[in-house]
Please model this.
Amino acid sequence: MFAIYSEGDFLEDSKTTVSELKYAVQRFSEARDWDQFHSPKELAIGASTEAAELLEIFRFKTEKQMEEILKDEKQRERIGEELADVLVFLVRFAQMYGFDLSRSTESKLKKNESKYPVEGFRGSNRKYDEP
Ligand SMILES: [Mg+2]
Model:
C-alpha cells in the first residue's frame, strides 16, 4: 500500500488515484479522531461552505479582473486551496459512506450525455429542458 500523506509525500494529479486521495483524507481525519464530526450532513455543509469561499474570490469581478486573478500567483494559490477544500470534503464523504467517485462521475456524465447530446448543445449553455 502507498504511504500517502506523511511528511515528504508529494501528490500530483497525473500520478495520484482517487483511492489514494481517499486514503490520504482518511488517514488525516482518523489521526485526529474526526469520524465523530463527519456525518453526511456536516460533510455536505463543509463542501458547500468551501465552494462558497471559492465563489467569493470571483464575486463582483469582471471578465478582465478574473483573467488577472488567474494570472496572479498568490490568487492562484488561494484558488487551489479552496478547490482542495471542496475536494477534501467530497472525497471524505465518498470514503466514509462508500461512494465510488469514478463510477458516480461516469454515470453522471452518461446521463448528461443523453440530456445534452453534442448535436443540439454544442456551443450552447441553455438547460436541457429549455426550448
Ligand atoms: Mg477554504
User: Anything to note?
Assistant: The helical segments are 18-31, 40-58, 63-71, 73-97, 101-115, 118-121. The CA atoms of residues 58 and 66 lie 7 Å apart. Residues 50, 53, 82, 85 surround magnesium ion (CB under 6 Å).
